[in-house]
Amino acid sequence: MSEFTTFSFSKELLQNIAEAGYSSPTPIQSLAIPLILQGNDLLGMAQTGTGKTGAFALPILQRLLERPRPLIKSLPRVLIVTPTRELCLQVQSVVETFSQNLEVKSFAIFGGVEQEEQVKRLRLGLDIVVATPGRLLDLIQQKQLKLESVEIFVLDEADRMLEMGFIDDIQELIRLLPAQKQSLFFSATMPPEIEQLADRILKHPKKVSATKASTVADKIEQKLIYCKNADKFQLLKKILKEDEVDRVLVFTKTKIIADSVVEYLAQNRTAAKTFHGDMKQAERERALHLFKEGSIKVLIATDMAARGIDIEGITHVINFDLPLNAESYVHRIGRTARSGKAGVAISFCDDTEKGILSKIQQTIQMIIKSEKFEGKREVLKFKATGLRKVTPPTPGKSQEKTAYLDHSKRQAPLKEGEKRVHPGFRNQKKKRK
Fold it and tell me: Which residue among 27, 267, 359, 416 is least crowded, i.e. fewest CB within 10 A of its CB?
């Protein structure tokens, strides 16, 4: 495999690469970097964990260094669009790492936070903007950001954009971009809609491919455990007690289940944090920080974290629930066995999930070694997580009416002899004798 010194990188950029601990390019980098340096449009088939971000960040930095230009208010030279805030921050982190002490300014722009700092940085001028579609379009509409000076456009994880419903936003962005530009398009899969989008964006593109699907089974020990849905909590608790389990990423299909898993583990003296869309951005960043530094060893996430989270040292990925599609399974378990290290992926499966299990095994072209688990009888007690459906009392029934009162609102004190009446009963006419 060629070294980074074989590329026409500046001494300063090569120094930053070395200081970041990179000695040899990954396959996707070896294929993509020379083509991007030559100014070609590129269609790259690559998943996270293949070194994809470096594959476009490094040649972009080199091209900017070769053609310096003063910063201009609200007019970036490079636009990198990602589907999620987490991936946006990760890409920006990589760009910052490689651009230390270089005359290149970059910043991440995403929703879920106040926009004042983002607007301030745009007004000062930026070479590279890394952004999510929603906030990007908002700032364009506010005329805080203009795209007519974009020289290089990167669309990262295009298939994820499709899954999240961003295709219309991306098509609007393409309409606003200048016709003369270099376009780089990356996607882990290539459904028909993505092929059509690539055809619209790219001009005579060079194609490279370095997917991880075929290597996942080699690096990751995959296990399958059949169990009842209610027994998954006990099974997770049992696995987390094993000595070799160090840093664990657990995937659930809903936010409610994720919260319930954290609550269950807390009841059993195991610290864990959730990571899902109902959390504020600061809370999510805090959870990732604690997990990354090792303060907590268990992070419970929904599929929002299946891509864009690149944390070294994850020993186990546990699918508490199987994902909705086979592709998500590959992305989930790819969070472990990073940088050539070994990892373990354990999937729980109840009777209702056997259909998707069959599709997963067809996709990875292997039958996962399985076992069964039968838990002891256990009463699961959760707070107001939404797992148990609460049925409102029926008028006229001798139920405890106060159980359905909204206690979040302060109620006026009762007068002497007065009884508390549920709001749903106040307008009922008294029965005639």
Answer: 416
